[in-house]
C-alpha cells in the first residue's frame, strides 16, 4: 500500500450507540470518514458533526467511492437496507458490526464483505476507550481479513479473527456478562430506592465482583447464600420480596442455578458474605 | 480515651473468608488481635499466624479480657455458639458481621452488643483493600456506636450507621449485585468453555459494565436484545441454548424482567449491542 491505512475513505451507515462510538474511535485514530447515513436527521447530523463528515438521510445518496462501508444498524434494518446499500457500490468492502448475524447474510449481495464486531456495551452518553475493547473480524477473502485486522489494530490492542459460529457464542456470552449482570444492578437499585438507600453504596461491591474474575474463575469467585445453600438466609430474602413476584422468581431461579453449577463443577472453594 | 484505639484487644470468633479478610485488615491497621477461635484447627492456626495472635479450637478457652469480640461465623453457627461465647465475658463489646441477622439476636445475651458489617465479597485466595469497602455499624448504645464508628474509620473511608432493617435490604441488594452478577459471569464462562473460547475476552466488557454504573443509572446503562425487544436475536439465542434447559430458563426470565423494568421506568435511552 502506498498510502496510510487511515486514508481509507469510510462511510458509516447508521448513527446509533455502536455506530456513534465506533465512528468517533475511527475519527480519533485519524481515519477519514467521508459520510454518515441515518434515517433520522438529528442522529445523522450529530454524528457527522462529531467526525467532520457530510451526512445524508437518503440511502440512495450514499457515496459510491468509499473503500470501507461500516453498516451498524439494528439487525432487521440491516436485512431491509442491504439491497439499497450495495446497489452501485460493488467496489468497496462492506462490513456489518453485529455479534449475532452471520457473515453470509452479505454473500451474493456484494463482492467484498465481512464483519467488524467490537464486543462492548455502548451508550451515547458515555465515551469508551477502544484500546482495550476486543474486536472480532471476519471476511470472505484473506486480503480483506488482513485489511480489517490492520484497521482494527489501529483502534484496539485486542484484535481477533472469529468465525460467524464463534461470534454468535461470544455475543450470547456477552448478553450474560453484560446485559444480565447490569440487570442485576438494576434490580438492586430498585430495591434500594424503595427502601430509601442510595445505590452508590453498592459500587465498591460491583467493582470488586468484576475485579475478582481477573484473578479467580467465576466459579471460584462465587460467594453468597445460594452457594453455601444457606436455606435460612434464602428463605428470609424470599420473604422480603413477597410484594415483588418478579424479583422473587429471579432470586429463586438464580439461587438454584448457582447451587446446581457449583455441584456440577465442585470447584467452588469460596464462602459468601 | 487515654490509649490509642488500636490498643483495644480484639478476639476473633471464626476464621472463614470474612473473618480472615477482616482480621487481616485490623492487623494491617495496627490493631492488636489477641486470639482467634475456630472449630477447625487448620483455619484457626492459619489466621492466628497471619495476625500474630494465639488461637484456640475450644470455645470455653476464649479469653475474657478482650474489649471487642468480633463474631464472624455462619449464620446458624452464630445462634448455636452464642450462649458459650458470652458466658463469663459480659464486659467486652460483642459484634456480629452478618448482613442478614438483626442486632437483637444478641439482646439479653450480653450487655454490650452490636453489628459490624463490611459489605463486600470475600474469598480467602484474594486480599481486598478495605479502604473503599462500606462498613455499616449499629449497637445498643450511643457510646458503642461511636466506638464502632471510630474503629471502622481506621479500616475504611466509608463508614455508615445502619439499622438492622436497612442492613437486611443492603444484604439482599448485595446478593443481586454481587452473587447474581458473578453467576452471570459463571454461566458465560461455561458457554464459552463449551465452545472452546477463552473467558478472558469477556473481561473488558465486564469491567465496562461495572464502570458504567458509576456514571449512569443501571436503567440508563442497560443495553442488549431484551431492552430493544429484539425478538429475532432473542429467539436465536434461545435456540442456541436448546441443550441447556437451565440457561434457557435464565435467559428467558431475565429478558422478560429487563423489558418489564424498562417499561415501568421508561427511562432507558440506551441501545444494546
Helix and strand topology:
Two copies of one chain form a homodimer.
Chain A lengths: L8 E5 L3 H12 L3 E6 L3 H10 L3 E3 L11 E4 L3 H12 L6 E4 L16 E6 L16 E5 L2 H14 L3 E3 L2 H31 L8 H10 L5 H4 L3 H4 L2 H10 L4 H21 L8
Give your account of this protein's structure.
With 273 residues, the first copy, chain A, is α/β, with parallel strands linked by helices. Chain A folds into 2 domains: 5-162, NAD(P)-binding Rossmann-like Domain (Rossmann fold); 168-265, N-(1-d-carboxylethyl)-l-norvaline Dehydrogenase, domain 2. The first copy, chain A, is 47% helix and 13% strand. Chain A has helices at 17-28, 41-50, 75-86, 142-155, 164-194, 203-212, 218-221, 225-228, 231-240, 245-265, and strands at residues 9-13, 32-37, 54-56, 68-71, 93-96, 113-118, 135-139, 159-161. At the A-B interface, helix 5, helix 6, helix 7, helix 8 and helix 9 of A face helix 5, helix 6, helix 7, helix 8 and helix 9 of B.
Query: What's the rounded overall pLDDT mean of chain A?
Result: 92
Q: What kind of oligomer do you see?
A: homodimer
Apparent shape of chain A? elongated
Strand content of chain A: 5-15%
Q: What is the fold-level CATH name, i.e. the topology of the largest domain in chain A? A: Rossmann fold
Class derived from helix and strand content of chain A: alpha/beta
* Assigned CATH architecture of the largest domain in chain A: 3-Layer(aba) Sandwich
Q: For this structure, what is the CATH homologous superfamily of the largest domain in chain A?
A: NAD(P)-binding Rossmann-like Domain
Series of H and E elements of chain A: EHEHEEHEEEHEHHHHHH
Q: Main beta sheet of chain A, described? A: 8 strands, mixed
State the end-to-end distance of chain A. Answer: 58 Å
Counting DSSP H or I runs of 4 or more residues, the number of helices of chain A is 10
Largest protein interface?
Answer: A-B, 101 and 101 residues
How many beta-strand runs of chain A? Answer: 8
Spans of at least 5 consecutive residues with low confidence of chain A: 267-273
Amino acid at each position: 500500500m502506498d498510502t496510510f491505512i487511515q486514508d481509507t475513505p469510510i462511510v458509516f451507515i447508521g448513527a446509533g450507540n455502536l455506530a456513534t462510538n465506533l465512528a468517533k474511535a475511527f475519527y480519533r485514530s485519524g481515519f477519514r470518514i467521508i459520510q454518515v447515513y441515518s434515517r433520522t436527521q438529528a442522529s445523522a447530523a450529530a454524528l457527522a458533526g462529531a467526525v467532520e463528515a457530510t451526512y445524508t438521510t437518503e440511502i440512495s445518496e450514499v457515496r459510491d467511492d468509499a473503500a470501507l462501508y461500516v453498516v451498524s444498524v439494528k439487525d432487521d434494518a440491516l436485512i431491509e437496507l442491504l439491497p439499497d446499500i450495495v446497489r452501485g457500490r460493488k467496489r468497496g468492502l462492506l462490513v456489518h458490526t453485529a455479534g449475532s448475524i452471520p457473515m453470509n447474510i452479505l454473500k451474493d449481495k456484494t463482492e467484498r464483505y465481512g464483519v467488524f464486531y467490537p464486543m462492548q456495551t455502548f451508550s451515547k452518553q458515555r465515551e469508551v476507550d477502544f484500546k482495550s475493547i476486543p474486536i472480532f473480524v471476519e471476511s470472505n477473502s484473506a486480503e480483506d481479513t488482513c485489511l480489517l485486522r490492520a484497521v482494527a489494530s489501529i483502534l484496539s490492542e485486542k484484535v481477533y479473527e472469529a468465525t460467524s459460529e464463534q461470534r454468535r457464542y461470544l455475543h450470547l456470552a456477552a448478553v450474560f456478562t453484560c446485559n444480565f449482570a447490569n440487570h442485576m444492578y438494576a434490580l438492586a437499585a430498585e430495591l434500594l430506592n424503595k427502601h430509601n438507600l442510595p445505590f452508590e453504596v453498592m459500587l465498591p461491591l460491583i467493582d470488586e465482583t468484576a475485579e475478582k474474575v481477573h484473578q479467580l474463575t467465576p466459579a471460584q469467585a462465587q460467594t453468597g447464600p445460594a452457594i453455601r445453600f444457606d436455606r435460612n438466609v434464602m428463605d428470609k430474602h424470599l420473604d422480603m420480596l413477597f410484594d415483588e413476584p418478579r424479583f422473587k422468581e429471579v432470586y429463586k431461579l438464580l439461587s438454584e442455578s448457582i447451587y446446581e453449577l457449583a455441584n456440577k463443577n465442585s470447584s467452588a472453594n469460596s464462602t459468601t458474605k
